[in-house]
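This follows on from our talk about sequence and fold. I would like you to pick a protein and set down its sequence and fold. Go ahead and set the record down below:
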Amino acid sequence: MADDQTTWELTAEETAEAVSEQKAVRLSKRERLVAAAAGPGGGAYPVSVPVTDTIPALRARFDNLEADATTGVVAGIAGRVMYLRSTGKLCFATLQSGDGSRIQAMVSLAEIGEESLAEWKDLVDLGDHVFVSGEVVSSRRGELSVMVREWRIASKSILPMPNLHNELSEENRVRNRYLDLIAREQARKNVVQRAQAVASLRRTFTGLDFIEVETPMLQVMHGGASARPFVTHSNAFDTELFLRIAPELYLKRAVVGGIDRVYEINRNFRNEGADSTHSPEFAMLEAYQGYGDYNSIADLTQKLIQDAAVATSGGHVVTWADGTEYDLGGEWDRLSMYDSLNAAAGTGFTPETPIAELAELATREGIEVDHPIHGKYVEELWEHFVKGGLERPTFVMDFPVDTSPLVRGHRSIAGVVEKWDLYIRGFELATGYSELVDPVIQRERFVEQAKLAVKGDPEAMRLDEEFLRALEFGMPPTGGMGMGIDRLLMALTGLGIRETILFPLVK
């Protein structure tokens, strides 16, 4: 079964036998290329080809060329073959560069001779990387082209490519991201936008005199968040270690040491569920500002996200992949968790409301709460009654104290802490604190967490003596925040988390 040169042949329904047959045909072409090579380093995979120009550079220079025009410019370019057509004495190929830019190659009998034209027809397949050199021209139809005088295969594609006309399913895109990047413009755009967003974060921090640091990914004590860790073992130290769930406790050590404005863009690992907004491995930003609080860190977070929107979309109004426009501009709303819950549910809950009263409403609404404490009931009820109605970017302020063991108590409201969660597009994008810096109260909070762990709460924090010792040397009043990089891209693009991660973990 020979390759069809006019379409991308394979679909998901084609058999493994068909794939194997096409692979065998291409392998035989590889053998002929190797045999014809003058020496090592040539054949189907030469060590280099004499590229002088890129496809996007030629498009930028000659895109307005009139039909059937010549330039006198000779260029050597390389790209992946996305389309092939033969009309006897003239063959056409569309070459694509890594950014998706395309140009036509015209391979004619008059320019390269009978033997070379026959080899082109025989050896070149869809998906191959080829080098062509010749004059830059415009075809009769006005297509920017290279009139080929010399060509060679730069890298032979042994497997046939997927059908370009049948879009890959999300599952296939995730599992075969390299094919997704070849075939789909949005996939390439996602990579570029992520890089632009991360670069913007660093520019904003640099402009505000923050210092970027690196903290350990392997830790003897997991902490900084309520989450289940991945557990491993160090042979060198013969001890149990944890992949970090957050860099928080190390970044706070840096603040104790005098780095008042510090941040890290890092990889975190949480041994929990995976869905449209969660991944076991994810990228995260955490930042701490000495002599700040949760209000100043909210201002910082808004600026970081709005600057990233400008970097990726040119303004505060971003256009998602489905065409929806979402406005990230202006000053974002700030609302109280308790007040908004009471307004939506018609209740009068306070931090002193008995658990039984909260549990009664939760049962009536069909809400189940694992390891029930006051704060978990309040947060679950808030998500049930309020979360779905948030349309604009919104800081939800002032959380229950018993679910926030690393946060300073509110300066004027008993029973809550100075914590906010930022909601965009209906999901939590970031969280911010007025940090708890009193080592005595922090120890008390850790002890309460240890009691929850004894009762079976797998997300409860452990008592971290090393961190407490650092706090005892004095940490200034501080505001801190954490934001998922993957979720930031979700807010900027409207895509699910598996689309914003280049190579997500899949089962």
Q: What stands out?
A: The longest strand covers residues 70-86. The CA atoms of residues 213 and 264 lie 6 Å apart. Residues 1-12 have pLDDT under 50 and may be disordered.
